[in-house]
Write a structure and sequence with these properties.
Length: 449
């Protein structure tokens, strides 16, 4: 894939119907040509169409829905635009980007999310911002407190819809969208479009335009050089240290499935004098914000993150993504590697795969329609199998052997010297001497008389 596969180089933002004030903000950010999703979505959104937009991660979806919002709102109505996002980090990132793009307009943008004091956000809401970017839970809370009215919303936008459904916001989304009773415009934007998202679109949109710009085979960003490394579970930390020493990433994210693994990996890297910070849901929001700023300012080189916390990472020039744990959902893999190779840049994704995870790897390859090559490190010396693992394996083998023997002894062996005798007719040599005390006697009770 070339730059032309991401950017619409035959157009400029001035061709999309945007005002001079917005074009000035775009120029300040250094953008010249729109991406393909931007070139197709922005004119339709300015026309007032409901839109279901799909495009690969890292192709400018935030500006694709943010620029039309800045264009269509005239600043006379507070709370006119509501943008729902799945995570705090994404709320902050989208808010920052919309403020930068709309710096020369009179529109005020506010982020509302959990983790920050409600009183702080409540005071800012009372100043009547025009655009609200928020997580579903905090948006509903502010609405219940009568600080965020739904009856003024002219434009409802949902970013990362697939992720909001994944983490359990489906009922919140239905309540929020169902609470907007007046006529309004609705835009869904997501990297993947599931059947459930299509059902939501049919229920809450008015004849939406379907911009499914990426099929499953092109879900992954083509600039990402993807590799997998076969490694035993007990060697993963050692392998990560080894790979980092060879790759020497400028900026990298290490993805883990569980928060406890995030902490363990980060501490291991820090012991090796590697600048590494953690990013997961247990961190206080202020700490999470500082980690993001440190990453943007290159004060740290590596962030070890859980999937949920990393959804709002929108940092340019991330060179490497390491999948320390293989995700169960292959679409999560797509989102992970989308943190690198953004805006036409190159990037590398390396995934550690244990022998029992071969099926998960095949599921990822089927979704992305890409065969991920296996990389070997001849100078890597695997560690010994831990004693605990050996004990577990020996115990399992003993249990299997005992079960095999039990299943094979269906009839006891008869000694050779008893063949032909009564003992030979009865396995085990126990010969009955009389009839049983209770017998059916051939009688069955029936209803006949």
């Amino acid at each position: 894939m070339t730059t032309n596969d991401i950017f619409e180089t035959t157009q400029t933002f001035a061709d999309l119907g945007l005002s001079d004030a917005i074009l000035k903000g775009i120029e300040d950010q250094g953008f010249e040509h729109p991406t393909i999703i931007q070139s197709q979505l922005i004119p339709l959104a300015i026309e007032g169409k409901d839109i279901l937009g799909q495009s690969k991660t890292g192709t400018g979806k935030t500006a694709a829905f943010g620029l039309p919002a800045l264009q269509v709102l005239d600043g006379s109505t507070p709370y006119a635009c509501l943008c729902l996002v799945p995570t705090r980090e994404l709320a902050i990132q989208v808010t920052r980007e919309m403020r930068e793009l709309g710096a020369h307009t009179n529109l005020k943008v506010l982020a509302v999310y959990g983790g920050q004091a409600i009183s702080t956000q409540a005071e800012k809401l009372k100043k009547k911002p025009h655009i609200i970017v928020g997580t579903p839970g905090r948006v509903m809370d502010m609405h219940q407190r009568r600080l965020l009215p739904y009856d003024r919303i002219q434009l409802a936008m949902l970013d990362e819809v697939d992720r909001m459904l994944d983490i359990g916001f489906r009922e919140d989304i239905r309540k929020i969208l169902g609470g907007i009773r007046q006529k309004h415009q609705t835009i869904f934007v997501s990297a993947t479009i599931s059947d459930e998202i299509m059902q939501l679109a049919r229920k809450y949109m008015n004849d939406p335009v379907d911009l499914s710009l990426s099929e499953a085979k092109s879900l992954t960003v083509a600039q990402v050089d993807q590799e997998c490394v076969s490694v035993q579970n007990w060697d993963k930390l050692k392998m990560l240290h080894h790979v980092l020493k060879i790759e020497k990433p400028d900026l990298a994210i290490v993805f883990c499935r569980m928060k406890v693994t995030v902490d363990k990996v980060a501490k291991s890297l820090q012991k090796k004098n590697i600048d590494a910070a953690v990013l997961h849901a247990n961190l206080h929001q202020g700490k999470r914000n500082r980690v993001m700023e440190q990453l943007r300012n290159r004060e740290i080189r590596i962030v070890v993150a859980s999937d949920l916390a990393a959804r709002g990472i929108d940092v340019d020039n991330i060179t490497h993504v390491f999948n320390y744990d293989v995700p169960d959902d292959p679409e999560v893999y797509v989102h992970r590697i989308g943190r690198t190779a953004r805006k036409g840049q190159d990037g590398k994704a390396i995934m550690f795969v244990t022998p029992e995870q071969s099926e998960l790897l095949m599921n990822i390859e089927r979704l992305t329609n890409v065969e991920i090559p296996t990389r070997t490190f001849e100078d890597f010396k695997p560690g010994p199998e831990p004693e605990r693992i050996q004990q577990d394996r020996r115990r399992a083998e003993a249990e299997r052997e005992a079960l095999r023997k039990a299943n094979s002894r269906t009839v006891a062996e008869v000694p050779a010297d008893t063949q032909g005798s009564d003992d030979a007719k009865f396995p085990g040599g126990l010969v009955p001497k009389q009839l049983p005390s209770k017998r059916m006697g051939g009688r069955l009770r029936t209803r006949r008389r």
